[in-house]
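This section describes the prediction task in plain terms. A model, or a person checking by hand, is given the sequence of a single protein chain and must write out its three-dimensional structure as a string of tokens. No templates, partner chains or ligands are provided. The sample shown here is typical of the held-out split.
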Amino acid sequence: MLVRSKRYVATCSLFLLLLPSVAKAQTYDAAADFTISSNPIGPWAYGTKTTPGTAGISYFTDSFNVGGAVIGWNNTSIPFQAPFVARNISGTQQTFETGTFNPGQLFAHPDSSVFSTVRFSALPGINTYNLDVTFTNLSTSTGQQVFVYHNGDELFAGLQTGGFNTTTGPATTPIILLGGDVIDIMVGRRLSGTSDNTYTGISASLTPVPEPASVLAVSVLAATGVAGLRRRMRRNG
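The expected answer:
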């Protein structure tokens, strides 16, 4: 009986060690999670980078709200003053200059010297995600640079060469994130150095993939509990 108790305690201990990683793994969506209440907020931050592969980021300091339809971050509080990151929170399509923004859409615009950046910083723990990122051209202009980096390592680099509403981006990428790891999603100027009318939609999500060890621990604990319950029922019966 003592041996069985020790095994049960050991199983419970394993489960409790892995539980924090399981509990903290959740789905993140850059558009759905966007807010102007604070920057950074949770795992998300919005700002600019001068070079895609560097670690540093300058956070936007000011927010703007266009009639309750479009909210965003930049450094001036002037709506659509580039560089910025914004979201159409209304239920209807919104336009500005040559940009057209669909309901719920997150979008960015750089300037000629910096890349508008959406950063995801992983929370403590070790979690595996499927990373999905898509960039959409939201104006008639083309040629803007788009990037995805993980801790300074390039995951994707491309150009928006198609017309309005065309998309580009990496395929779904399985990725293991440790606490403090960062994913930088960036929109930049054209190779020519200009940045006018480079409105670009950003769709980005991280969906957790269950870790085999965690799943095994949960399964073993459940099986142990069921077996113990059956033994007690037989004794009591």
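For orientation: The radius of gyration is 23 Å.
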